[in-house]
C-alpha cells in the first residue's frame, strides 16, 4: 500500500509546450520564479523523493533535482514520462504531477496514497467536475500494459487508464488546485492573481 514515505513523485516537464510558443513550460517564469519551483515548493513538504522528467534543458532542470528523459522518441506526451519513470525508479508506487500546475493541493500525496487499495493500479485526482489525468499515483504493475499501449501507437492517457483498475480521488474541495497554464495569456492572467 502506498504511503507518503514509500512513494516517489515525478514532475512531468518533458512535453513540447506547443501552446506556450515552444517555451519549456517548467522554466517559464511565473511571479519571478520558474514555474517548476512553485510545484516543487508544494511537493517538498509532502515527500522526500522528487525527480523530474525532462527532454530539453536538462542541465537547468538538474539544478532542481535528479532528471531523466523519455526512453521513447518523438514526445509521446505524459505517458512517455510515466514509462521512463517506471524504468528509472524502482519504487512500487510512483506519483506524477505536471510542471504547469503551480497550485497543487498541500495534502496531495497523503490523500492520493490513502485512497489506494491493494488492487488499485492507478489513482487519479478529480476536481469535482473532471479527472486530472496527469495528477496520478500508479503501481508499477501497469508497466507491461503501458508498454503494449505505446507500442500500438496509442497516446491518449485515459484509454490506458480504462484498461487498468483506476480509482478517482476526490479533490472537489480544492477545484482550483489543478489550474494548469498552457499559454502565455493564461500565465500572465494567473501571475496577476498571485
Task: Describe the protein's architecture and organization.
The chain has 194 residues and is an alpha/beta fold. The chain is built from 7 helices and 9 strands; from the N terminus they run βββαβαβαβαββααβα. The strands form 2 sheets. The protein has a 7-stranded mixed sheet with strand order 5-4-1-6-8-7-9, sandwiched between helices. A two-stranded antiparallel ribbon has the order 2-3. Strand 4, helix 2 and strand 5 form a beta-alpha-beta unit. Helix 3 crosses helix 5. The radius of gyration is 16 Å and the shape is globular. It starts with 6 loop residues before the first strand and ends with a helix.
In short:
Helices cover 30% and strands 22% of the residues. It contains seven helices and nine strands; from the N terminus they run E-E-E-H-E-H-E-H-E-H-E-E-H-H-E-H. The protein is globular and about 45 Å long.
Features:
seven-stranded mixed beta sheet; 194 residues; globular; two-stranded antiparallel ribbon; 9 strands; alpha/beta
Instruction: Report the total helices.
Output: 7
Radius of gyration: 16 Å
Biggest sheet, open or closed, and with what strands and sense? 7 strands, mixed
Give the strand tally: 9
> Structural class, from secondary structure content?
alpha/beta
Unreliable spans are none
* Distance between the amino and carboxyl termini: 36 Å
Strands in their spatial order, largest beta sheet: 5-4-1-6-8-7-9
The helix-strand sequence is: EEEHEHEHEHEEHHEH
Average predicted local confidence, pLDDT: 89
Question: Which percent range fits the helix content?
Answer: 25-40%
**What overall geometry do the principal axes of the alpha carbons give?**
globular
The share of residues in extended strands comes to 15-25%
Amino acid at each position: 500500500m502506498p504511503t507518503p514515505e514509500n512513494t516517489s513523485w515525478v514532475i512531468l516537464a518533458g512535453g513540447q509546450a506547443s501552446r506556450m510558443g515552444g517555451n519549456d513550460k517548467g522554466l517559464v517564469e511565473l511571479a519571478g520564479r520558474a514555474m517548476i519551483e512553485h510545484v516543487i515548493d508544494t511537493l517538498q513538504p509532502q515527500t522526500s523523493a522528487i525527480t523530474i522528467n525532462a527532454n530539453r534543458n536538462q542541465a537547468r532542470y538538474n539544478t532542481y533535482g535528479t532528471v531523466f528523459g523519455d526512453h521513447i522518441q518523438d514526445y509521446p506526451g505524459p505517458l512517455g514520462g510515466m514509462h521512463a519513470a517506471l524504468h528509472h525508479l524502482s519504487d512500487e508506487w510512483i506519483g506524477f504531477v505536471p510542471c504547469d500546475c503551480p497550485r497543487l493541493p498541500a495534502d496531495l500525496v497523503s490523500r492520493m496514497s490513502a485512497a489506494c487499495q491493494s488492487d488499485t493500479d492507478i489513482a487519479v485526482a478529480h476536481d469535482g467536475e473532471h479527472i486530472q489525468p496527469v495528477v496520478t499515483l500508479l503501481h508499477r504493475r501497469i508497466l507491461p500494459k503501458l508498454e503494449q499501449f505505446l507500442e500500438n501507437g496509442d497516446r491518449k492517457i485515459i484509454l490506458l487508464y480504462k484498461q487498468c483498475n483506476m480509482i478517482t480521488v476526490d479533490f472537489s474541495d480544492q477545484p482550483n488546485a489543478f489550474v494548469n497554464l498552457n499559454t502565455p495569456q493564461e500565465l500572465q492572467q494567473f501571475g496577476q492573481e498571485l
